[in-house]
Specification:
heterodimer, A: 200 residues, alpha+beta, Lipocalin, 3 helices, globular, B: 135 residues, five-stranded mixed sheet
Chain lengths: 200, 135
């Protein structure tokens, strides 16, 4: 009798686990430049400039019912375009982001907490210039099940829209502003990421 | 002595011109500057969520003379006018920022004030010296 009960409970537990796994879906960032944008904004008295890249890649695991998830993002330093070719070159220099040694900027989330509506608090490790720091930020995560409309727009499977922005202090990542760049690049820059991801 | 006098007058005169320019140039550009928010249009975002696309950077005062860059009838944060980022990139438009004009005008202003002061002091000193030599 006891064995049957244990078996039944195990079966139910397995069923629940399977349901839970089924709800946690993996979304990959859509490989289309118009559906993804990473940007960094520097504001000084001289000028405000924005570096942009559509070469961001990565994936998310998201459970829309339980409102939990995690994700990994990666951005090649060489893909950041500030609008001025010479400035792009400087950005990749050894004094700056050292693209030759550290070709990618990475963000790996470690935990999420649902705040309200589509808003989440995300904690994760941000790696730039070979230095990893833990950051905490807010993200807007919107999930849409596959539909005729999403298919018409070229998406495969369910769709996830993720938007986040957070400040980064450059010296925390061993990026020291010196020489001619003093006053032209802000000590703290704002990173903004917005991507579409899909299950298909 | 004559060369020094000319130099002093040039410094004072040049400084005065610089001073006028440092007020005139920003005053010329200021009325043309508008609070602008660049936006990268995204059809999917518009159709799925009703928003135009991704805001690129934050709103700032810029001078954009090409009317085709503006998304008419649409406003962004703080009442900013929306401008198509794709249009700017395609047409290689790197908008002039009012803050940059103001910054350099301020640099010119301080340098000009310095030049006027040095030039005027030089002229005064040279005149006094000439008077002493005559006496």
């Amino acid at each position: 009798m006891m064995t049957i009960r244990s078996f039944s409970l195990s079966f139910v537990a397995l069923g629940l686990a399977a349901t839970s796994l089924a709800q946690m879906k993996t979304y990959t960032i859509v490989n289309d430049p118009k559906h993804k944008l990473a940007q960094v904004e520097s504001k000084t008295a001289v000028e405000t400039f924005t570096g942009k890249s559509t070469a961001i890649t990565g994936s998310f695991s998201f459970d829309a019912a339980k409102k939990v998830g995690r994700g990994t993002l990666q951005l090649p330093v060489a893909s950041i375009d500030t609008g001025i070719p010479l400035r792009n070159e400087h950005l990749q220099d050894t004094n700056w982001l050292n693209a030759a040694k550290n070709p990618n900027i990475r963000f790996v989330s470690q935990g999420t907490r649902h705040l309200k509506g589509d808003e989440y608090e995300v904690t994760g490790n941000f790696t730039m210039n070979g230095v990893t720091k833990q950051i905490k930020t807010k993200a807007i995560v919107r999930q849409l099940p596959a539909s005729a409309q999403t298919r018409e727009l070229g998406f495969k499977g369910d769709v996830l829209r993720v938007e986040t922005s957070f400040p980064i202090t450059l010296k925390d990542f061993n990026v020291i502003i010196k020489g001619q760049a003093v006053g032209k690049v802000s000590e703290t820059v704002n990173v903004k990421i917005s991507v579409f991801a899909q299950t298909g | 002595m004559k060369a020094l006098t000319i130099l002093a007058w040039l410094l004072a005169g040049g400084g005065l011109l610089g001073l006028i320019g440092s007020w005139a140039v920003p005053a010329w550009y200021r009325p043309q500057a508008q609070l602008i928010q660049r936006v990268q249009l995204n059809e999917a975002e518009y159709k799925l969520f009703g928003t135009l696309g991704d805001y690129v950077g934050s709103p700032q005062k810029m001078i954009i003379s090409d009317p085709k860059a503006f998304l008419e009838g649409k406003t962004g944060p703080n009442g900013s006018k929306l401008v198509s980022e794709d249009y700017l990139v395609q047409n290689k438009i790197y908008p002039l920022q009012l803050q940059t004009i103001e910054f350099f005008a301020e640099m010119v202003r301080y340098s000009s004030i310095g030049a006027v002061l040095v030039g005027a002091l030089g002229i005064a000193w040279l005149r006094r010296r000439r008077r002493l030599l005559v006496d």
